[in-house]
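Hi there,

I know you've been waiting on this one. I reran it after we fixed the sequence typo, so this is the corrected version. Both the input and the resulting structure follow.
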Amino acid sequence: MSNKFDFAFFDFDGTIADTKEGIFNCLKYAFNKVGLPVPPDSELYKMIGPPLSEGFHDVFGFEGEDVDLMIEKYRERYRAGGMFECTPYEGIEDTLRQLKSNGVSLSVASSKPLPFTTKLLEKFGLKGYFDYLSCPPVDAVHMSKTDIVNQALEMNGITDKSRAVMVGDRFYDIVGAKEAGIPVIAVLYGFGDEDEFKRYGADFIAETPESIVRIISGEK
């Protein structure tokens, strides 16, 4: 039986791994380093999903060189160990293994810079499941989620977009995929919620990593 989708693009934060601890620790470090009060967790939570430049501007109102400074301080802590303060979700490796076994081509499509994404996938033994990593370089000025999804489409040589699907956990993934012209599976085990997914028009909602396989195979 053929799959409903032949290509699946996975976000990293909140989809492959629970990265909240590292992100929060790096954000708190950055605010402390520049002498600003640390925002409450409810505000820090909004930084999970968007590129750092977009998050520091849109969530906290930083402009220009101040955005660059916050990213610099964030990455000081991130490189020093914050990147490894995360854990792959239970069942995600089984999901990736099953999809590969079913003949689905897998790619990562994440706003996390490529060197960091590569190191984490290698650390967790997951890199081999992915054919391509569509992520921005560390020094990217700005690469939107739409840019990232479009890059993944190009990397895979996809001409029939109906055969590809984005798997993510925030509205950034939904918007980026829809602007690139592909459907979206939104995962409830990550950092988003059902109201967010319905508001932005997710095509499918997966409660667990296992249910991603059923959706992609066409069973659900």
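Quick highlight: The beta strands are 7-10, 17-18, 87-88, 105-109, 132-134, 164-168, 184-187, 204-206.

Best,
R. S.
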